[in-house]
Design brief:
Layout (H helix, E strand, L loop, with lengths): L10 H15 L6 H14 L7 H16 L3 E5 L1 H6 L1 H11 L3 E3 L6 H13 L5 E2 L5 E2 L9 E2 L9 E3 L5 H9 L3 E5 L6 H5 L2 E3 L3 H15 L4 H10 L2 H18 L5
Parallel strand pairs: 1-2, 1-6, 2-3, 6-7, 7-8
Antiparallel strand pairs: 4-5
Helix pairs in contact: 1-2, 3-9, 3-10, 3-11, 5-9
The protein binds ligand PTJ.
Length: about 250
């Protein structure tokens, strides 16, 4: 990895970029992952590279949903595996969920590398290397799923997702939580909960929220979800972007 000095004003962003490059070089992240990261970076500028208030609301609601879930599953792609592998394993342990490697640009070699990485970090159950079922309505590799994993899950956490699978999972009756810096993407609009935040901030925040909320009763967790409105969160996220950008040219 290239040495990035912590004093650099864009240290966090440059470090994230290095992690993705490292992911590509070690065969965990696909080449397309670089493009996805570039899209993400540009949108992260628009929110000042910090967790916004709507982002934090979505993270809290996502934690409540994961704690209430009967069969939650965390889906992992090549970008998430490069950027937040430790956090994904920790979150899985906290909520007692399996992980499942699911790739858009699937190669068996890359699936195996990601499964091994997650297992080396202490993950208990990692599906994905031997899919035994298909998500209906998809004609690409992301349809591949596992019974006991994504196929049977009631809540699926799918950071940096493509719109097709999100819609197909919702059509199966599942609740879908996504992390996507683009509040206008098809995934963002289709998911049950959309966290408009960088995945490198969203995962630690989500872990903190789960730790904070795990003592609450089922009723209290349900109340959090009842108050949550995903369309409102998306609208607020767009407004945050507009006012952040307008603020760049203010006189004071
Ligand atoms: O590993 P694979 O083969 O499954 O491929 C994974 C990628 C991410 C390459 C694939 O799913 C893909 O092409 O995704 P997209 O559609 O380019 O990106 C999905 C969304 O994630 C886009 O709206 C991006 O803006 C957003 N995004 C990218 N990086 C981040 C992000 N959102 C949050 N945090 C990021 N770091």
């Amino acid at each position: 990895m290239t040495e990035v000095p912590p004093s650099h004003p864009r240290y966090a962003s440059l470090l994230t970029r290095e992690k993705i490059i490292d992911g590509v070089e070690s065969g965990i992240t696909g080449l397309n992952g670089l493009i996805a990261q570039g899209r993400g970076e540009s949108l992260d500028y628009f929110i000042g590279e910090v967790t916004t208030s709507p982002g934090a609301d979505a993270e809290r609601a996502a934690a409540a949903m994961l704690l209430l879930a009967k069969r939650p599953v965390l889906s992992v792609n090549g970008n998430a595996a490069a950027l937040v592998p430790d956090e994904l394993v920790k979150l899985a342990q906290l909520i007692g969920a399996p992980l499942e490697v699911n790739l858009f640009y699937r190669t068996e070699k890359r699936v195996k590398k990601i499964v091994n990485l997650l297992c080396d970090l202490g993950a208990q159950i990692v599906f994905g290397a031997h899919p035994d079922s298909l998500v209906p309505g998809l004609n690409h590799d992301r349809a591949k799923a596992n019974k006991g994993g994504i196929y049977d899950a009631d809540v699926v956490f799918v950071p940096l997702e493509d719109g097709d699978r999100c819609e197909a999972l919702v059509n199966m009756g599942k609740k879908v939580i996504t992390v996507d810096l683009n509040p206008l993407s098809r995934t963002a609009k289709t998911a049950t909960i959309t966290i408009v935040d960088n995945v490198v901030r969203a995962l630690p925040n989500l872990i903190k929220c789960v730790e904070d909320l795990e003592g609450l009763s089922e009723e209290e967790l349900k109340d959090i979800l009842e108050e949550y409105d995903n369309v409102d969160v998306l609208r607020r996220s767009v407004r945050v972007m507009i006012s952040y950008l307008e603020g760049q040219f203010s006189e004071d």
